[in-house]
Amino acid sequence: MRRTLTMAAATAALALVGGPLAVTEARSAPVLGRWSAVEAQAFWTPERMASAVPAPPDPDASPATEPSVDPAASPAVPAPSPSSGPAPAPAPVPAPTPTPSAASTVAAVKPGRAPDPAYAAAAAHPGAGRDFDGMPVVGRMFVMTGGGAYFCTASVVSSPGRDLVVSAAHCLLGADARQVAFVPHYRADKPQPYGLFPVLRDSAGRAKVWIDPRYRREGADRAATLDVAFAQVGPNASGALVEDVVGGNRLVTGASYAQPSVTLVGYPASAARPRLCVNRTTKFVSSDPKIPGSFQRIDCTGYPGGTSGGPFLTHFDTRSLTGDVIGVIGGWKTGGDTDDTSYSSYFGAEIRALYETAVASARVERATRATRTTRAG
């Protein structure tokens, strides 16, 4: 089965409602709308978060209902013409390209604290998933869509503005997605240990989420190699930026498909705590013409619905609890057709371009907010 629930099953399980907010790729001169951390916390109560189910894929999103992409806002991710073929499998770039050093992030673990023994246990038993207490840099992304409360896994990615998270595109694809918020280190017994970080809105009330336009147009199967989304989050109720609070993983693109040691983290819907596993990755080339392309693959047991968007981490540091993010659960069949093998779109030049687009637009957002604050003062 796919890594997400069907829309019919999920909608039948929930009957929550919310205000309008559409998800789109990127836009110019955004202005922060009314969706602060205080409002997000009031909406996403512990009960509502606990009721959320895995986000369903939306491969049939209609272009007629989607906001258009401003070409000036996303020059690095060109949209092919409607007559173009399937999204091509991304080719590796010559050498891995990292974001600025992870040393610039704030360590999530205090110096001198012993690492969680779960990490050593996971490394000693490759491929065996286990529940653990989680890590600050990874959490749940909550969203209201289709009349229900949903979630996926997401993680903080280092950026100049210290305010970006990465997840799978199919988690945030719905035309009516709204009330979107990221909760790092979520656990059922302690749902907001670092607060809640709302995904910002633009002047039209749409969430600041970047998805390659080909993924929205061609769908989750045909454009499976582009199943990645970046989102800009505002500060928590204390006014702190997410990366300053929990740290961030470096984005690395162009790495080898085959990695000797990758740490995989996700939030299964059926568990009160997140899931941890360490194993090697391999290259998977799809033989299904309806889902073309090459993907990263990892065998790790027990990653069902809810784990979509969970990071593939290399060079994981058990003290800072950060590493290099080279993938997220998604891509082929939105993450896989069994709970014990997960996939990711390959992080190559196209994902790097999408990230740079998000960084540039987020910079405009911060400048706009600063100007408004100065005028108000």
Kindly describe this structure:
It comes from Streptomyces cirratus. The protein is an alpha+beta fold and 377 residues long. It has a single domain, classed as Beta Barrel (Thrombin, subunit H). The chain has helices spanning 7-13, 37-43, 46-51, 117-124, 213-222, 242-246, 349-376; strands spanning 23-24, 53-54, 97-98, 130-131, 138-145, 148-157, 164-167, 178-184, 197-198, 207-211, 229-232, 250-253, 259-266, 275-285, 294-299, 311-317, 322-328, 341-345. The strands form 2 sheets. Strands 1, 2, 5, 6, 7, 8, 9, 10 and 11 form a 9-stranded mixed sheet that branches. Strands 3, 4, 12, 13, 14, 15, 16, 17 and 18 form a 9-stranded mixed sheet that branches. The protein is globular, with a radius of gyration of 19 Å.
Number of separate helices: 7
Oligomer, anyone? single chain
Largest sheet data: 9 strands, mixed
Q: Provide the succession of SSEs.
A: HEHHEEHEEEEEEEHEHEEEEEEEH
Mean pLDDT: 81
Do you know the CATH topology?
Thrombin, subunit H
Helix content: 10-25%
**Rough outline:** globular
Euclidean distance between termini CA atoms: 54 Å
Rg value: 19 Å
CATH domain class = Mainly Beta
Tell me the number of structural domains. 1
Region (Disordered): 50-108
Protein name: V8-like Glu-specific endopeptidase
Biased composition (Pro residues): 77-99
Keywords: Signal
